[in-house]
Amino acid sequence: LDILDATGLATALMGDSIATNAFMLGFAFQRGAIEFDADAGRRGQTRRARPNPSETSIATPIPALTASSPA
């Protein structure tokens, strides 16, 4: 069992507590509590319903602390 101030951490990292759910989802995934294909998730991040050919992709992975890395 891990106990953490997810709202405080999400607010400190993202500037708003609305990021708490995404933060907790990532934390649970990194701890192995959620089965999910990470490669499929990365592919899904770059897909768009209707791509605009005049736009170039600016999708860049966001560096993040992992649940196992020291803060």
Q: Can you walk me through this structure?
A:
The protein is 41% helix and 0% strand. With 71 residues, it is mainly α. Helix 1 (6-14) crosses helix 2.
Helix content: 40-55%
Query: Could you state the order of secondary-structure elements as H and E?
Result: HHH
Distance between the termini: 18 Å
- Backbone structural class: mainly alpha
Taking the sheet with the most strands, its summary is: none
- What is the helix tally? 3
Beta strand %: under 5%
Shape: flat
Q: What layout of secondary structure does this protein have?
A:
Blueprint: H1 6-14, H2 20-30, H3 38-46
TL;DR?
This protein has three helices and no strands.
Structure characteristics:
flat, 3 helices, single chain, mainly alpha, 0% strand, 71 residues
